[in-house]
Predict the structure.
Amino acid sequence: MSTDSLSDLHVGRPNVGDRELFDRLVDGIFERRWFSNNGQLVQELEERIEDYLGVEHCVLVCNATVGLQLACEALELSGEVILPSYTFVASAHAVQWQKLRPVFVDIDPRTHNLDPALVEEAITEDTAAILGVHVWGRPCVPEQLQKLGEEHGVPVMFDAAHAFGCGTETTMIGNFGACEVFSFHATKFFNTFEGGAITTNDDALAARLRKMKNFGFAGPDHVVSLGTNAKMSEIHAAMGLSMFAKLDEILDVNRERYEVYRRRLSAIPGIRFLDYDDVARSNFQYIVAEVTESESGVSRDQLVSELKDNGILARRYFYPGCHRMEPYASDSNVATKALPRTEELCHRVFNLPTGSGASLEDVDRVCSRIESLFSESTA
Ligand code: T4K
């Protein structure tokens, strides 16, 4: 990585927890010489997360991608899994890695989340599960997807990679479906450098997941199922515990930047700023907007390129859509599916830097650059 790229403004600059606490926790790891495999800090972090989400079980894992694979394995899925194409490619890869067949379904362009009516149309006798994704931490109408699953006898699970700290009026994300999978990657609201968690209110599923993440061991020399190595180490858990100490602060920082972006960008014709007004509880981790070129005279790609020339690395998540990436693009079944809303959105959306890695001055600079680009184009 060049020094230039370090001085650029990134989407995904990590939030940092309580450094003193982290250092103290790391000292303890060395004193105990217990580095991994259900260590003290992993157990503490699991309890903290269970309390915070109000969920029965939190099973910490090494990352969300492997967490999703583990969840598919533990649910003994076989056949097709319905999911959006408008998601990070890890959602689809986890399904495909398990030799399940992804069935991509279009989205509601207002929320960027799966359209439940289209999900229902896609259910067949080969459907093994529905995988809802809470894109940008916006709950993907989990109650509706759960109801569909119940009516059709299909398990429902959620990719909650973006949604730690988010919730509906009544329930924190983490409590829906058979299970939910969070990402604690460096770029997330709550991070453990790399990491993730599977949460569930199903005792038997949690017990299965705990064995599976440790090679299937039920006790010393006693392997009872297929398993893998999906364990979280103690140093990662230390980071998580130090993040908890700063969670409210980070949320305030995110909300403050979101409000500035919203005020400034919503005023620009040709930009639709994606607000979180309809989300009961949000972590405000993603600053998302759409460009309508016919109104603004500027395309999304021109905007992203112009910002890049000014050291602002806006992202085009999730361009070009999973169905346009390999191996899905070459799969004739996938390629023939029409996903017009996903296609359109993929050409309009951009994400902007936020979090404690972007100061209010940085946010002001980003907004001013966008304002002047758009005013030049309409002058
Ligand atoms: N499901 C969904 C819906 C997801 O969005 C994701 C991951 C997953 C599942 C899988 O979760 P994990 O298996 O990762 O736990 C990034 C992240 O790598 C990925 O975790 C995330 N979603 C996705 C939305 O974004 P990239 O390819 O854009 O990451 P990268 O490494 O280019 O970093 C993004 C920006 O952040 C860069 O401009 C640099 C900056 N950065 C990154 C790191 C790692 C930093 O400033 N510091 C850092 O330490 O995918």
Notes: Residues 10-14, 63-65, 87-88, 90-91, 133, 159, 161-162, 183, 185-187, 196, 313, 317 surround T4K (CB under 6 Å). DSSP finds 15 helices and 14 strands in the chain. The chain has two domains: 19-244, 247-378. Residues 19-244 form a domain with the Aspartate Aminotransferase; domain 2 fold (CATH 3.40.640.10).
